[in-house]
């Protein structure tokens, strides 16, 4: 009881002892400039993708003007050793790190249309519906040049006017780790609803391919939405119209709760909580110009102790939103205290019948899920964020109503699935392998916090518990619970081969802190 009072995990005594010394990579942290210079000095030969696929140096249309190398023999001489195993997907030919049997598979959608990108770059994209609605409401419409006649390739899809979130397991949109391979993994483990990583409206309107990549969808994501973030009605509504035109999605979520300074300083995210009229205009315009359902995600308030969603909840449904997700913390609070579920219940009971309310915050076991659904039957569902990052099998636990005492071998198989999905998504050449490794390491910087059920005196583990020094039931389990980035790298080498010379890793979210704002 004393341990739990201090948010310390009650580990069984037989597992309490100093952990084995880490054999991880202890290296001096280098600046981005140093790392970039070192990569440049390594001067790896980048073989032309077309030449790699065809093994014909004359197949490249750019010939001598191509920015890639066409020397096949020189590339083979310096190419890293192949990784054992079968290639999960290949369009990379000689560049593939699994050069063997290749299997082609096309299971993703929402690829960025090059013609659309060209129009966005030249500021010639038209937004007929959004601009007409903005003008009818007397809202500012910043002028854009009219587009010349162009035939944009529209993706065939069935527009869905209704979407039902009730009792569905909803994986939250998650920064960095909530990528397409991780979402595929969560679908395998039982997630019902998935949503892409938050994309900034201004970047989408500028035609940034990296931002449009966040809207990519896998065919297994049968109930899928994208999340966008913007400051003004014209910006957001134009993006909504563009996504509805170009992508296949089941709903579009507008982020009005992101607490990160970079977003708030642009008057977006949780900054909108201080501007309820602008919130209304954004939702009203966006929902009126497309048939795709519009949802929003909010926090309780901007400032701690000044909750305001309860005063807006009755109107949000009338603005045109299909659902609202309430994260039970203020922007100022971030993760310093537990989520306020009593306030979420209060807001849910004040909502109109046409608005679905989804609760968010600290769901980490099937008991948490059951309690929230039992305490407030009006609640449509619960969104799961950090709980899924730490143990993505939480979806299996909820559906099977059990505490899964998962073994280290089972966890390793889940990681193997992620790696396979990553190589299919990012590619099986050297760049794809290292991108997969990077995102695997980002995920490992969360999942090491999981404490196996069999090691606890009290179950289930709470999301804010910190463990004392302890070890696992086998060497692999002990390795998986290590806080050392060097040990995470060792796990990645078990799945993706040796890291390149000079490799270093520092998690984007600084995983030594349990209460970061990124996944708000």
Automatic annotation (TrEMBL):
Pfam family, one: Dus
Enzyme class: oxidoreductase
Protein name per Swiss-Prot or TrEMBL: tRNA-dihydrouridine(47) synthase [NAD(P)(+)]
GO biological process terms held by the UniProt record: mRNA processing
Role summary: Catalyzes the synthesis of dihydrouridine, a modified base found in the D-loop of most tRNAs. Specifically modifies U47 in cytoplasmic tRNAs. Catalyzes the synthesis of dihydrouridine in some mRNAs, thereby affecting their translation.
Catalytic activity field: 5,6-dihydrouridine(47) in tRNA + NADP(+) = uridine(47) in tRNA + NADPH + H(+); 5,6-dihydrouridine(47) in tRNA + NAD(+) = uridine(47) in tRNA + NADH + H(+); a 5,6-dihydrouridine in mRNA + NADP(+) = a uridine in mRNA + NADPH + H(+); a 5,6-dihydrouridine in mRNA + NAD(+) = a uridine in mRNA + NADH + H(+)
Keywords: Flavoprotein, FMN, Metal-binding, mRNA processing, NAD, NADP, Oxidoreductase, Repeat, tRNA processing, Zinc, Zinc-finger
UniProt keyword Endoplasmic reticulum, yes or no: no
EC number per UniProt: 1.3.1.-
Domain C3H1-type, first and last residues per copy: 42-73
Zinc finger residue extent: C3H1-type: 42-73
Cofactor(s) annotated in UniProt: FMN
Source species: Arabidopsis thaliana (Mouse-ear cress)
The keyword Metal-binding appears for this protein: yes
Recorded family membership: Belongs to the dus family. Dus3 subfamily.
GO molecular function, one term: zinc ion binding
Record-linked SUPFAM superfamilies: FMN-linked oxidoreductases
InterPro entries: Aldolase_TIM (IPR013785), DUS-like_FMN-bd (IPR035587), tRNA_hU_synthase_CS (IPR018517), Znf_CCCH (IPR000571)
Region (Disordered): 1-41
């Amino acid at each position: 009881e004393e341990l739990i009072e201090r948010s310390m995990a009650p580990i069984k005594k037989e597992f309490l002892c100093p952990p084995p010394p880490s054999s991880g990579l202890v290296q001096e942290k280098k600046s981005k400039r140093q790392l970039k210079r070192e990569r440049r000095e390594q001067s790896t030969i980048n073989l032309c993708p077309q030449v790699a696929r065809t093994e014909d140096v004359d197949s490249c249309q750019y010939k001598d003007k191509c920015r890639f190398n066409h020397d096949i023999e020189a590339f083979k001489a310096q190419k890293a050793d192949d990784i054992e195993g079968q290639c999960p997907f290949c369009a990379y030919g000689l560049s593939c790190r699994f050069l063997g049997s290749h299997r082609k598979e096309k299971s993703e959608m929402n690829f960025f249309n090059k013609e659309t990108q060209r129009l966005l770059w030249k500021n010639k994209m038209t937004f007929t519906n959004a601009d007409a609605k903005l003008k009818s409401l007397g809202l500012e419409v910043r002028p854009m040049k009219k587009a010349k006649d162009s035939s944009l390739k529209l993706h065939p899809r069935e527009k869905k006017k209704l979407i039902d979130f009730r009792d569905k397991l909803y994986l939250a949109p998650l920064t960095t780790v909530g990528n397409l391979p991780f979402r595929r993994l969560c679908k395998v483990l039982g997630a019902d609803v998935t949503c892409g990583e938050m994309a900034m409206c201004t970047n989408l309107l500028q035609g940034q391919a990296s931002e449009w990549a966040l809207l990519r969808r896998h065919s297994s994501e049968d109930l899928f939405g994208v999340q966008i973030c913007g400051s003004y009605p014209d910006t957001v509504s134009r993006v909504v119209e563009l996504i509805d035109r170009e992508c296949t999605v089941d709903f579009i979520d507008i982020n009005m709760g992101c607490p990160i300074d970079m977003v708030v300083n642009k008057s977006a995210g949780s900054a909108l909580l201080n501007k309820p009229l602008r919130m209304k205009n954004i939702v009203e315009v966006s929902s009126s110009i497309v048939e795709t359902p519009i949802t929003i995600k909010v926090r309780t308030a901007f400032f701690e102790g000044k909750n305001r969603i309860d005063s807006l909840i009755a109107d949000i449904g009338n603005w045109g939103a299909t659902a609202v997700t309430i994260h039970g913390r203020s922007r100022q609070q971030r993760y310093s205290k537990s989520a306020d579920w009593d306030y979420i219940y209060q807001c849910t009971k004040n909502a109109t019948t046409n608005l679905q309310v989804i609760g968010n915050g600290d769901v980490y076991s099937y008991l948490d899920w059951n309690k929230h659904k039992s305490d407030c039957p009006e609640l449509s569902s619960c969104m799961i964020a950090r709980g899924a990052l730490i143990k993505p099998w939480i979806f299996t636990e909820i559906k099977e109503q059990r505490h899964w005492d998962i073994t280290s071998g089972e966890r390793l198989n889940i990681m193997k699935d992620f790696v396979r999905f990553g190589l299919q998504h990012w590619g099986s050449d050297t760049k794809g392998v290292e991108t997969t490794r990077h995102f695997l390491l980002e995920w490992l910087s969360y999942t090491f916090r999981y404490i196996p059920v069999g090691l606890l005196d009290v179950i289930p583990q709470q999301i804010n518990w910190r463990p004392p020094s302890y070890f696992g039931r086998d060497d692999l389990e002990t390795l998986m619970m290590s806080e050392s980035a060097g040990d995470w790298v060792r796990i990645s080498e078990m799945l993706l081969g040796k890291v390149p010379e000079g490799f270093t890793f520092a998690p984007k979210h600084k995983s030594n802190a349990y209460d970061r704002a990124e996944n708000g």
